[in-house]
Every structure is written in C-alpha cells, then in structure tokens.
Amino acid sequence: MSFTPRPYQLDAIEALRKGWADGKNRVAVVLPTGAGKTVVFSHLAHQMLDNLDGRRVLVIAHREELIEQAASKLLAVDPMLRVGIVKAQRDDHHDADVIVASVQTLAVPKRREAIRDIGLIIVDECHHAAARTYMEVLQHFGAWDGVPVAGFTATMTRTDGGLAEVWEDVVFRLDILDMISDNYLCDVRGKAITVDTLDLNKVKTRGGDLVDGQLGKALEDSGAIDAIAKAYVEHAADRAGVVFTPTVATAQAAAAALTAVGIKAAPVWGDMGRDERRATLARYVAGDVQVLTNCMVLTEGFDAPHTSCIVVARPTKSPGLYVQMVGRGLRPAPGKRDALLLDVMGAASRHKLASMVDLTDREIGEAEEGKSLRQVAEEHVASEKRRALAARVTAEEINLFGQSAIRWLRTEDGTWFIRLTGAMFLFLVRDPGTRLYRMRRWTQANGVHPPKDDVARQLPEALAWLEQQAKTLAPGAFVAREARWRSGQPTAKQLGLCRRLGIKVPRGSTAGDVADLIDQDRVGRVLGQLSLPIAA
Questions:
Q1: Cα dihedral across residues 178, 171, 298, 66: positive or negative
Q2: Which parts of 432-507 are beta strand (E)?
Q3: What are phi and psi of 269, to 5 degrees?
Q4: 379: closest CA among 366, 360, 392, 393?
Q5: So what's the pLDDT on residue 134?
Q6: Cβ distance 150 to 122 under 8 Å?
Q7: Which terminus of the chain is more solvent-facing, meaning fewer CB atoms within 10 Å of its CB: N or C?
Q8: How far apart are the C-alpha atoms of 292 and 254, rounded to whole Å?
C-alpha cells in the first residue's frame, strides 16, 4: 500500500460492506469532487479481492480520463495488482485481477461476453447508470443476480430520472461543507457576473435543463462573452481558471475574448483530437495556459488542483451539473487561498437556476455577495441557533406568565407589564446580553423609577417579586387574570375609546379582552416615548 486512506474514506468502504451484508445488492456512495472517490474504490477493490474466491473486480467508467485515472490509482494503492484496461482496441482482461473498462466498449455484446468471473462491480460517476447502455452492461454482469455493485458519484442526480431503478440505497454521503471544514477542500466565494442584455427567459428547457444551443446563442448575442473576459481581468487576473460553456462555439469565443484582454486561454471540447486535447490540458497544468474554456468536457475526471477560479458561463437548472462544474476548483493546492466562483446570469430569469448554495445539501439560505460558502453556512447555523433559543425562551416566558394568577400583558416590542391603575403600571426590563430581569414602575406623576433593592433576577424570581408588588399596590380584582368582570360584554365606553385610538376589536371579544387591548396600546405608547433600553 503506498498511502493511507482518510478516515471518511474508510467509513465509506465500511458503509458499502454493511449495505451488502444487510441484503442490499446495488449501493452507492456520494462524495464531493475532491474527496477521492477513485481512492475509495481502489481500496475497496484491494480489500474485496481476498473475499471473491478467485473472481475479479470490474470497474466501469465512461470517459478515457476516468479509465486512465482509475487504473493509475488502483496501482498506487497496490502495485502488485494486475490491472487490465478494456476500451477501444485495448483488451487486457485475461489475467487481470481488476478490469477497468469503458461502458461504450462493454455495450458491444461480443466485448462484454469475453469477460468472465466478475465478483464485484464498481461504477464510477454512477449518476449515469440509469442510461440504457449501463443497464444492459450491469444486467449482463449479474447486478440483479447477486453480484455486489458499488456506485460512486459527487451528485446522485439525473435530469431524466431512473436512478432509483438502479441504486437501492445511498449508504454513505459526505457534504461539501464537511470537507471544507476539515480542510480537505478549499472554501469557495461567489460573485455574480450580471449581463443586463442576457435574456434567459427566451431559452427553452429540454430534459429538465436549458437547451445548450439556445443558451449559447443567447450568451453570444448578449455580449456575455466580453463581460466574462472583463470580469476575469477584474476579479481573477492572478488565478488559474476553468470556464464552462454550453457549446463549442462559446468555448472558442470565450478563449478568444480572454486572450484579447491579456489572459492566456485555450479551449477544449469533446470532439477535439485526443492528442491535441491532452497537449492543451498539459499546457494548463504546466501553467503555460492560465484559463481553460470548455464545452462540458471537464465536469468529470479532470484533476488540476491549482485551479482557483470557476466561471459558470453555462447557467443551469441542474444542481448536480452545477456541483460537477464548481467542484473542479475546490481541491487544495500549495498557496491556494480559496476558490472564486463567477456565475454568469441575466438581469432576470423565470428559470430557477442552480447557485452556490446548491453545492451543499444543507439548508443555508441565500448566499450573500462576497461571503464564502463556509461563512454563509456558519452564519445560518448561528442564526438558527439564535432563533431556536429565542423560541425556547419565548415559550418558557409565555408558559411562566400564562400560569400566573396575575393579568400579565405584553407590548408590541415584547415588554411584559402589569397595569395597576390608569396612572401606574409595573414592567420588566432585561439586562442587556443576559437572561436576567429588573423591575420598574411607571407613574404618571414621576415617570419611571426602580425599586429600592434594584437587583437583577432570574425570570421566575423577577416575576414572583413583581407580582407581589402588584398585589400590594392594586385591588386584586383589577389585576387578577380570572376576575369575574373580564368575562362580561365590552362597555360602550371601552368600544368608543377603541374607535378613537384606532384599535381594532375582534368579533366576540369580552370586556377583559378589550381592556387588554387598550392597556397594551397605552403602555406601548408610554414606553415608546421613553426610549428605554428595554430588551424583551
């Protein structure tokens, strides 16, 4: 073994093995880009070979880069493994322990029928597995007949559905925020490139996402390509980056626009000659090219950790595709502070487009311009904790006051009070930054004044102390919550006063209800005029 797996990688392997032991045959693992999916399944293959009784491991991938990457990692994990590659003219499976094959080659019946004795199937980028070719290949090798299958992906989404027919369970999932918090991935900071003339409303949707050709034309016609080049110079001039575009033409145009403003850029695309594409990627890795523009060929299997800027010039409704694109820039590298995400968008859109918050499965609200994903998440967690604490405290206060025999009321700003007479009331003031309260009395003659022993108290103690004062200073029938008069009909005087004060009286209100409305209005006005530091 040439390197040690990370703790979460071992956890993923254990989850897969447990899933099989529990009777689930086709199970999957979802790990963010950069989490080392290839490392995980390479260790899995190494471990499982001892238990396969001479049978072999089949790794299925759909791209040349993924196939070569998988074979390389398998040998790095265990140099003694016999790894064979099956794709196009290569057919090295006869004496291999692990076979790494392209799904396109295995789709040919003659090629897959020549491969025998498979005891474990591993599917890389398994969100593709609902496609007909994958289904045929998986069925041929026994995925529905007892041969264990492990799927690996960064995003278990597919716009045309069908994944539930393949995968019985996702047994392990690691969120991108966990990876960022543990410093396995870089934090990411987002910035919008808003192009006022870009009208995405005219772009149709097909298969759950915006149509590539129409999207490319909209980008070109709106001047978005030049806006991308300008934004790159302004925000990422010192960063190596990757630009994702919807068409080959937009990839080529973006490279030309960047080069024109002094950013050395080169395009790559699917039908580009293999040798030319390899040479272009090598120039980028070596630093001879600062920016790669591409038509959706670098979403999977592309590994260049020094990439620190991602330009999403392919607005998408698919969170899965968005994660694949942005994930290319999150791997850590020496001297890399963070990743910058430049999102191209129109001034307005009827489409619900994926954004930075879709990188995580957690609910974190909306991303604020200039803040990183980690900051947004941490602020959301802190906000939720404050909200939960406030809800718990409020429930506790309402319960405490609700159990009291005294008629407690609350102003609109949340201050609890007891009205004693038309010219006097008692109220509670919270000490700033604490859960302690102090009692205050207001009289029409003297305004607000504290008691002689002005001590900050816990809420139950403050409540009991203030109630004792109320019983001493006012008739019991006036301050009692269950006083008999409260259940009667409102008086004409009460209703007339409500009309003058602009207080709306709900239908069916009792005399006590109307008295409370009047008292809340009066006390609220008095406290509002005093400008006291009252914390509810």
A1: positive
A2: 436-443, 447-449, 457-458
A3: -155, 170
A4: 366
A5: 93
A6: yes
A7: N
A8: 9
pLDDT(383) > 70: no
Taking the C-alpha atoms of residue 437 and residue 408, their distance in angstroms, rounded to an integer, is: 15
DSSP 8-state secondary structure symbol assigned to residue 49: G
The C-alpha angle with vertex 112 and arms to 297 and 92, in degrees rounded to 5, equals: 75
- The predicted-structure confidence for 129-168, as pLDDT tens digits, reads as follows 888 999 999 999 999 999 999 999 887 765 555 677 889 9
Q: How many CB atoms lie within 10 A of CB 466?
A: 25
Residue 289 CA to residue 388 CA, distance in Å, equals: 50
pLDDT beyond 80 at 54: yes
CB 341 within 8 A of CB 310: yes
SS3 category, 248: helix
- Rounded mean pLDDT of 442-462? 86
Average pLDDT, the chain: 87
Residues 519, 520, 523, 529, Cα dihedral to 10°: -140
State the pLDDT confidence band at 76, using cuts at 50, 70 and 90: confident
Tell me the sheet residues that pair with 210.
205
Query: Beta-strand (E) ranges in 46-187?
Result: 56-61, 83-87, 90-91, 98-102, 118-124, 149-153, 169-173
Share of residues in the chain with pLDDT > 70 (%): 92
**Amino acid at position 434, single letter:** T
How many C-beta atoms surround the C-beta of residue 475 within 10 A? 11
Collect all residues with Cβ–Cβ distance below 8 Å to 456 and sequence separation of at least 6.
431, 434, 436, 437, 438
Distance CA 457, CA 465 (A): 9
Q: Is residue 1's pLDDT more than 50?
A: no
- 3-class secondary-structure state, position 165: helix
Inter-residue contact 112 to 143 (CB < 8 Å): no
